[in-house]
Design a protein that fits this description.
about 425 residues; two-stranded parallel sheet; 22 helices
Length: about 425
Amino acid sequence: MMAASLSQCCFYLARSVSRSSCLVLTAKRFILSAAYVSSQQWEQRNQDPQNLAELAVTMEKTYEKNLPVSSLTISKFVDNISSREEVDQAEYYLYKFRHSPNCWYLRDWTVHSWIRQCLKYGARDKALYTLVNKVQYGIFPDNFTFNLLMDSCIKSEDYKGAVSVVTEIMLQEAFDELSTQLISLYVLHKYLASTPTLSWADEKNIGASLVLVGLKQENSVGLSSQLLGYSLLGKTELSKGLRAVYHQMPLMWTPGYFNRALHVLEKAVSVSNDIKLNKEAIDTFLNLLQCGTSPDSNSSKSESTEDTQEGKPEEDENEENEHSKLPHYLQKFQEVHAQLQSLGKIESDSLLTLTTRLLKEKLPACEEHDIAQFEAKLKQWEEERAVLIQREKEQREQARLEREAKLAAKASA
């Protein structure tokens, strides 16, 4: 069967990565420095202690009156979490706030605080759940917060959880900071090195993440990641159909993901001699092309795609055309591969080795930039919060005066 054949081919990468990278890290890897993950500055903010039980009662009464709870109120609730049980309570009120008229006003600092509180009280699962279900909870972190969450997963060697964070960064197209790009690449290649069993959806998400973050890097890791990513997406395109690739994804909706992988090979021929393509990624691409052109792939195509096809003749035609191009792709691969060999542009070190090396080289300078940026953002958040607090006081005072005026008018009547 085509789907089965391509799946078996995909295992090639995991086996080769695992063999060649076993000596990369001899101890548990802590990616971010103590200064980066420190909560000292965060906890030195002006505190506003609250009784969560009383705050919960206030919010419930507000909702019963069909009135919106303010973003400042939900922020106070999250900031005052002091136990794992209260994390669960806060999750409930984040959900209710997201489904209220004020949902657009969930503050950035509340999102950051929520992730920090989850990590502090051993509820990383809640952080990941609300992140994946971002539409229901409004959790859209910034790059600094994403990095803290990925680092926590790495420390616990929860690379599956870390990959789910990278997937969310990819879906939000948020590979803005170099530090986030580097950590994401490390997470992806570390996870693949563990020889995980991947569903086609996992392969699609990892492939898309590799492509989008790889496009941000002008080096061997970036180009090799693009090649591997396009290869995985090409596999999904052949086995599940084009729509399965781009549906709800920030990807091109035109066919030819294997062809895009070929373009990466051609680019490697023409770019600087310092940039090479990783042998593992090249071999994986070749393996998938060969599997796609095998005799059993054609006979099983309709069966392997029936779960994603819903009477789309135009798409079916595109897929048939793409499948018919595989022999040409394979021939073109052989030509470009010969050029890469003659130019000495094939890198034998594993992708994990290359990524770890790049991380060690680039991350320290990124940390200085990120910490300075976070300190500036923290100051801005405090200023915004002070304005909201003052506005809330003024509104309460105005409401009190209006209430007294009504009572006085009623008494005089």
